[in-house]
Amino acid sequence: MNIPENYQDLLKDDTKAYLFLATIMADGTPQVTPVWFSAEENYILINTAAGRIKDHNMQARPHVAMVIQDPNDPYRYMQIRGKIAERTTEGAVAHIHALSQKYMGKDWNIPAGEERVIFKISIDKVSGH
Question: 2.30.110.10, 3.40.250.10, 3.30.470.20, 3.40.50.1000: which CATH number matches 5-128?
Answer without folding.
Answer: 2.30.110.10
